[in-house]
Design goal:
Order of helices and strands: HEEEHEHHHHHHHH
Radius of gyration: 24 Å
Number of strands: 4
Bound molecules: zinc ion
Shape: elongated
Strand content: 5-15%
Distance between the termini: 35 Å
Strand order of the largest sheet: 1-2
Structural class: mainly alpha
Number of domains: 2
């Protein structure tokens, strides 16, 4: 569409300000809840990373455009939801997964929570947010401990089996530590147990082998067994982490993302 004919029904400044205030400057996506205002890290000014997002698009051809809306309805606060930049981007690029009713329910629930905690004071705000955030927060921590861990993709590391063992040992203790923040049997706990089981079966296969002296040699049955076990481990962990990331809308970062299979 040519920009000359495209008219956008933007929110007036007052509507943007009200949306931000009503959301207490937190992103309204229940899985995100990122704070969108604060101080600059080094400078003296305030930093705003929030965004008054249109539920139904401001212009023809935009995401969730609703032809029956009048320009006034399109510009009204009822057609807005406060989001961080990342979530604003996500709901517009994947508009079919985020229908108007989904975004309206985000705003309704988020504003209701803010209203409740505003009356109860700040400490309960943090508690409530933690309760709502625990699972995605944990999912993100699990994913991040796998990202950029060379053992899952670098050929070079596989040539030094003892390094692989050390890295997996460390990973195992980090995962075990994370489990202590989980409620036993909940989805995140189950995911961690499964990751630990996968690492365990790798160690079971290579148990009899001295990994310190083992070197790449296709005629050595111990090497072949190590190589096979590492291949299976990489594939299984890659799939599990990619599935976890997808369930919690976490974008995989770094080298791992190029090696993880897409769930
Ligand atoms: Zn967000």
């Amino acid at each position: 569409m040519s920009t000359a004919t495209k008219s956008r029904d933007e929110f007036p400044v007052a509507v943007k300000r009200d949306l931000a205030t009503r959301a207490a400057h937190f992103c309204s996506n229940p899985r995100c809840l990122r704070l969108t205002a604060g101080p600059q890290t080094k400078g003296k000014r305030g930093l705003g990373t929030g965004h008054a997002a249109h539920i139904c698009a401001a212009a023809l051809g935009g995401p969730r455009y609703e032809p029956t809306q009048t320009p006034d309805q399109r510009r009204s606060i009822e057609n807005g939801v406060w989001l961080c930049r990342e979530c604003g981007d996500m709901v517009d690029k994947d508009a079919e997964s985020f229908e108007p009713e989904v975004l309206r329910s985000w705003r309704r629930n988020h504003e209701a929570m803010i209203a409740e905690v505003r009356q109860k004071g700040w400490s309960s705000t943090i508690e409530l947010m933690r309760a709502g955030q625990a699972e995605p927060g944990l999912a993100r921590r699990i994913v991040s401990i796998f990202e950029d861990r060379r053992v899952f993709w670098a050929t070079f590391d596989a040539e030094f089996p003892d390094r692989v063992r050390a890295s997996l040992d460390q990973l195992r203790s980090e995962l075990t530590k994370l489990r202590s923040d989980c409620i036993a049997g909940n989805p995140i706990d189950t995911a961690i147990v499964s990751l630990l089981r996968t690492i365990r079966s790798f160690f079971d296969i290579v148990e009899q082998t001295d990994l310190v002296t083992l070197r790449c040699d296709s005629h050595d049955p111990n090497w072949r067994s190590f190589e096979g076990a590492l291949g299976a481990l990489r594939k299984s962990i890659g799939f599990q982490v990619a599935t976890l990331a997808e369930s919690y809308s976490i974008r995989l970062q770094g080298e791992f993302s190029q090696h993880a299979p897409h769930a």
